[in-house]
Structures are given as structure tokens and as C-alpha cells.
Amino acid sequence: MLEHMAEYSFRIATQTDIQAITDIYNAAVIRGGSSADITPRTFEQRKAWVESHHDPYAVFVTTTPKPDGGEEVIGFSALSVFYDRAGYDGVTDLAYYIAPEWQGRGAGVFTLSGLLDECRNRHMRKACGIIFADNKGSIALMRRFGFTQFGLMPQAATDSTGTMRDMSYWYLDL
């Protein structure tokens, strides 16, 4: 794997991580190309989102050490309900966001690896990712980890830039 991965840690998110989660998510919303939210989310909205995840679903953070001995949250990810019907238990919708300055440094690979470990530890049977079809970084991650594309919905969602985007649908049998 990548040499940078030793710099990263992966853990369940806590209340003290919500501001970092909000900031990372809003950077993605503002930049466009990875979220169908068209305006930044508030701290309270992100807090409610984190708190809406109940076992076996959860929100996680990816961190890196700070020179002062603390840690910096550089990304977050989530295992969320795929479809709210009991027959879909064991299928999870996964998502991940990496702070812009940490993209391209192995943090996405590390985060998705940790997220898939959590899927297996939580006895999920399938992981699904719903991604803008032109999001080259996320598509590359899906392929790297063996996900299969099972659908494409043309012109399905608009991002904050006003661009109408196709959505690609991916799954991995766990």
C-alpha cells in the first residue's frame, strides 16, 4: 500500500469531531462534484446527521498526528442505512470525504479500507456507493477495492455549481 498510510488513524466519530466533519463536508459542497447538497450545511445539521447513525451504522473520522501531539481530522466516512426496510438489513450505503489538502496522499485509500473493515466487523453483506459519474477519484477507489458498477442514472443530481451530473451506482459483496 502507500507509504503515507502509516500517518493515518481511523476511529468512530465523537461529538468533538462534528466541527471538522462540517468543515470537510462544506468544502466538498462548495467545490462541487461530490455532493448533491447545493448549500453548505450548518453545525447543527451535521450534528443531527452524525447522531442519526445507530448501530450497526456509524460515522468515522480519519486523523493524522499533529506536531504538538494531538490529532487532526482530515476526513470522515459513514456507514448509513441503504434503504429503510428490514429486508435490506446488512446492506449499507457508504460515503467518505477527505479534506482538499489531504486528497491524493493515500487518505482516501486508507479511509475506504477502514470503512470496509467496519462493514465486515458489523456483519454487513453488501456495501453500496452512489457517486457522481465524473468523480474520477472516487470511481478509481471503487475500482481499486473491487466494487462493481451496477447502474448509471443520467442527469440525476445538481451540485452547488449548478452542474447537472450523472450518478453511478456501485456495490461490493462482503
From TrEMBL:
<dbReference type="Pfam" id="PF00583">
    <property type="entry name" value="Acetyltransf_1"/>
</dbReference>
<dbReference type="GO" id="GO:0102971">
    <property type="term" value="F:phosphinothricin N-acetyltransferase activity"/>
</dbReference>
<feature type="domain" description="N-acetyltransferase">
    <location>
        <begin position="8"/>
        <end position="174"/>
    </location>
</feature>
<protein>
    <submittedName>
        <fullName>N-acetyl transferase</fullName>
        <ecNumber>2.3.1.183</ecNumber>
    </submittedName>
</protein>
<dbReference type="InterPro" id="IPR000182">
    <property type="entry name" value="GNAT_dom"/>
</dbReference>
<keyword id="KW-0808">Transferase</keyword>
<dbReference type="InterPro" id="IPR016181">
    <property type="entry name" value="Acyl_CoA_acyltransferase"/>
</dbReference>
<keyword id="KW-0012">Acyltransferase</keyword>
